[in-house]
Amino acid sequence: MSYLLRRTGFYLLTAWIAITINFLLPRLIPGDPVMSLINRAQGQLSTQAIQSLYVLFGLNKDESIFVQYGHYWAQLLHGDLGLSFAFFPTPVASVIADSLPWTLALVGITTLASFLLGTALGVYAGWRRGSWLDLVIPVTTFLSSVPYFWLGLIAIALFAGVNGIFPSSGGYEPGLVPGWDPDFLLSAVQHSLLPAVTILLSSMSGWILSMRNMMVTVAAEDYVTVAHAKGLSERRVMVSYAARNALLPSVSGFALSLGLVVGGTLLVEIVFSYPGLGFELFQAVGAKDYPLMQGIFLIITLSVLAANFVADLAYLVLDPRTRREG
């Protein structure tokens, strides 16, 4: 219990630091975000209107930094992330809410699928080392070293374009209204196939390689030899003794990959112009949309912390040593 309380306190402290940094970002960057918005709009505003914009975006110069910090926390507790510059006057929370489901559906499903498939294949390949399965190791090594976006460009060149069987950009056909009707769902699935396969091939290869190496190491341990000597079945020794211990390092890696689901495939979404959170962040940087960049940064940071906290909970279940005091 003390281990869990310590880890909870650590993540709460880290979350507070991340939120504080997120608050300070627009106040530390060079330039003036509000004046940048006014200059981009090429409008003439009165002094009172400009002051109203500073208040609206939480940058009121008449208030101390501590008062602004208190207002920022009050906004966060009410789910208010500010107003987007590029989509003014749309709230940042609404922009993120529109983009986040696309990223979760694409990257979340492919990340989970690649971990499950890669881990299962890695366990079997490591347990059957020296067989024909070792022939796939050079292929997985090559694929795991190739960036997502490079595979995406190759996939677009081979399977998309004018005569291609898959669309090369977008999340659905223009003219369709997002909803649960069959036409939209079919179009969304068709547009997500190429980026999904791209992510799946690259990330699954890494899981196969790492799990296979861990299985080779664990298979030589004494407790595996003792399990064989006790007459346990081959499958039970492989799953309950070897794979369970070999899986521990992969849990941390999987937690990090889950946390990076939100923004880790930025380049893939840019290559395919996929309407996810990574593509939205790319547009926000180009438009100098500081509130939107703040909101996406905060979502990514908190998702990484939440995923690592889940990994710690998984460690408590998989490894009894973490449940012991001292």
TrEMBL record:
Keywords, A to Z, come to: Membrane, Transmembrane, Transmembrane helix, Transport
Q: Which GO terms describe its biological process?
A: transmembrane transport
The way it spans or sits in the membrane comes to: Multi-pass membrane protein
Family affiliation = Belongs to the binding-protein-dependent transport system permease family.
Q: Which residues cross the membrane?
A: 9-29, 102-127, 148-168, 188-209, 246-272, 292-318
Please name the source species. Kutzneria albida DSM 43870
Gene Ontology, cellular component aspect = plasma membrane
Q: Which Gene3D superfamilies match?
A: MetI-like
Q: Tell me where it resides.
A: Cell membrane; Membrane
Q: Which residues form the ABC transmembrane type-1 domain?
A: 100-311
Keyword Membrane tagged: yes
User: Has the keyword Transferase been applied to this entry?
Assistant: no
The protein's name is Binding-protein-dependent transport systems inner membrane component
